[in-house]
Amino acid sequence: MLRRTLIAVFGPALLALPTFAQSVPEGEAEEPVYLAAQLFSEFTGVELNPVQQERFERIGRETVAKIQSIFDDDQKKRFKAALRAGNDLNGALSTIEMTDRQIIEVRSLVKSLFSEILYNLSRAQKLELAAKMRLRRNR
Question: Which of 42, 52, 77, 87 could staple 132 via S-S, CB 3.0–4.6 A?
Answer without folding.
Answer: 42
